[in-house]
């Protein structure tokens, strides 16, 4: 039971930090390089569509379990600790945003992949 409670606390922390990074990307006190990292991680994490769909066995959850937490850890390290704590407190009080930019980015990647596959495998006239 303790392991389940630990996992729940970790998941809540990830959600809170994602929103805090979303806020950090818009905060003028955050350095530009931290804003870029925070914005990219938050946009991806808050996007309603995953780069690797969850229905794909094993690797479908890889981004949720590995890529997003590692990205959050990197972005959090780039933001001054006092400011990050302030953003975390604000994130706890605010609603979870949805990233339209992340959604558009993921859709664009899938469209480019589909066009590349069509180009590669569509029969060319002789």
Largest sheet, described in full?
none
Low-confidence stretches: none
Q: Provide the helix percentage.
A: over 70%
Q: What percentage of the residues does DSSP assign to strands (E)?
A: under 5%
- Return the structural class: mainly alpha
- Mean pLDDT metric: 84
* Helix-strand pattern: HHHHH
| Shape field | globular
Radius of gyration: 18 Å
Number of strands: 0
Instruction: Please tell me the total number of domains.
Output: 1
Distance linking N and C termini: 66 Å
Number of helices: 5
Question: What are its keywords?
Answer:
mainly alpha, 5 helices, DUF1232 domain-containing protein, transmembrane, transmembrane helix, 126 residues, single chain, membrane, DUF1232
Give an account of the 3D structure.
- The longest helix is centred in the N-terminal third of the chain and has 23 residues, at 2-24.
- The chain contains 5 helices and no strands.
- The model has no long low-confidence stretch (mean pLDDT 84).
- The chain is globular.
- It has one domain (2-121).
- It is an all-alpha fold and 126 residues long.
- It has helices spanning 2-24, 32-46, 62-78, 81-93, 100-121.
- This is DUF1232 domain-containing protein.
- It is a multi-pass membrane protein.
- Its main location: membrane.
Describe the SSE topology.
Blueprint: H1 2-24, H2 32-46, H3 62-78, H4 81-93, H5 100-121
Helix pairs in contact: 1-2, 1-3, 1-4, 2-3, 2-5
Write a brief structural summary:
With 126 residues, the chain is mostly helical. The protein has 5 helices and no strands. Helix 2 (32-46) packs antiparallel against helix 3 (62-78) and helix 2 packs across helix 5.
